[in-house]
Design a protein that fits this description.
This protein has 472 residues and is mainly alpha-helical. It has 14 helices and no strands. Helix 5 packs antiparallel against helix 9, helix 5 crosses helix 11 and helix 9 crosses helix 11.
Amino acid sequence: MKLSFKTKLSYGVGAICDNAMYMLAGTYLLLFLTTVAGVNPAVAGTISAIGSVWEALCAPVVGFKSDTAITRYGRRKPFLLAAAFPVAIVTSLLFTAIDATETVKIIYYIAMVLMFWTCFSSFFVPYLAWGSDLTDDYNERTVLRSFAYIFNQVGMCIGMVLPSIVVDYCMNIGKSQQQSWQIVGIMVGVCGAAALLACALSIKTDDVKNFVKPKKEKGQSVIRALPSMMKEYWNILKLKPIRVIIGASLAYLIANITFSSDRVFFMKFNMGMGEKTISAMLLMITVAGVATVPLITKLAGRFDKKDVFMGVIGICGILMMSTRIIGVDSFGVLVVVCLLYAAANACYWQLMPSMIYDVCEAEELVSGEKHSGAVISLQALSESISIAVGVQTLGLILQMAGFDNDAAMQSHTALAWVENAFVVIPGAAMVAAALIIRKFPMTKEVFTQVKDALDRRKQGEEVDINQFKELF
């Protein structure tokens, strides 16, 4: 189904909240906890990892509930509306530095991180699944994700570029570092909430006309539904496209979160950059990502999505690792690394969700029902795990390398490992993602066959799913 420009635009706006929260946590949470809140780097990494593991538990529940939700506003929209105000409040509280003992700080930030990722899961999975509901056209889904990616970059500006600028400005007018970061939390939270409300309230496609509220039946609670939910997820995991998608997502997102969390450390301590220069570099990454969108869209329209994904991300990963041999010790090489990351990131966030949408049709063919929320929540689970692995690993690396959060100058060993985490680890993970996606069976040809089979089934014909051996 072709979508109107207004629907694509409205859907895209929702991506602001997604990336604003994700990039704020991915880029600055570890830095905030160590240098502003005064938490030990290894402990700060553990706190971040705990939140990500919690999100991994929340995502499948939210996906299952959004698939089975029956409301006058559709299945996905109520989740975005319900998450808006909590997002604003919790994001503000997470980036509030408290004056307390180490133990109290740890308890406080663990609680805030858990609430932060709960809010994130409650809208992210339904929002992503909504894209699958809006259109089932192979190429239109890539176009829809192009709109989402462009607004993702707006969210990236809010969550990644503006914080450094805001902190620098606030401190220049007399605010403390702690007050400045609290203002950042409020800013990102309010922007995210506004984006969710704008998206949910402006899309009418999912509205249910002549809605009649169903009678409440026993067994609707999550606890009672747990056996059927586990069985549903187990059946979904039997599909080869799902397993490949999860593997490739996990690998790339480890690259993404490691690079995102480490880049401010690298620019500040290895390159000696000030806040304004760092902000300019982060803005360049954002602009470069947006500039890559038309090229990725054109390539995906001409070739299979997986081939474009494999080529762009694999090449970028190899080139990023190669810069370690040269040494990222000049501004020019730094720019090249950032541009390579921007291209890979644009490719991932445009094509991976679009490929996941295509898998939803394969799952519907096999199961007889469409479970977009459940399918997409498994990819969200890989995102949660990758954040846990990436941030925890970076925290341990900094700790073992002797990183001192109170020192203006770091040891040679600490700087070397900050550089490794900037190019080697992300580059290797990107190459791994490219190699994994080679096994993805949902080409455009297979997708067309699956769609044809679904259409024939809807017309009452018998369909033999055993002919789709590539799905198992």
